[in-house]
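Usage

Read records sequentially. Each one opens with the input sequence:
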Amino acid sequence: MDYEGKVISALNDLQEERKKNKLLIREVNRLKQKLEEIREVKRELSQLRRQIEEVNETAEDIFDQLRERDILIKELKEKMAAVGEKREHRSSQHSSSKTLDDVINSKKSYLDKTGLGYNSFSTNKIMDCKVNEDNQKIYKDILKIRSCSRRFRESMMLACYLQ
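and closes with the structure output:
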C-alpha cells in the first residue's frame, strides 16, 4: 500500500501542479497580451511623434511664408506711398493744366487770365498792351474759330504767345 499511497499522493500533487501550471499559463498569456498592447502603444507613440515633427515643420514653413508676406506687404506699402506722392505731384500739375483747359474750353480771350492767379479780366489792360497788327489779326482769327477743336485752339494760342 505504500506504493498506492505514494502514487495517489503523487497524483494529487500532479493535479495541484497542473492547476498551478494552468494558472501560470493564464498569467503568462495575460502578460503576453499586455506586452503586445504595450508594443502597440509604443508604435502609436512613435507615429504620433512623427506626426508632431511633420506638424512642426509645416508650422515653421507657414511662419516663414508669413514673414515673407509681411516683408512683401511692407515693400508694397512703401511703393504705394511713393506712387501716392507721385500722383499728388501729378495732380498738382494736372490741376494747373485743367485750369488752362477750362480757360481754353470756356472760349475766353487768351489775354483773360482769371483763374490763373490773376484777379480779374480787364479790357483796359488789353488796350494798354502794345499789340502789333499781326497779333490783332491772330486774335480776331481766334475769335472766329472758337468752335474748332481744343488742340487747334491750343496751337493757335501758342502761336499768339510765341509772336
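Summary fields computed downstream for this record:
- Confidence is low (pLDDT under 50) at residues 120-131.
- Helices lie at 2-105, 123-128, 133-144, 150-162.
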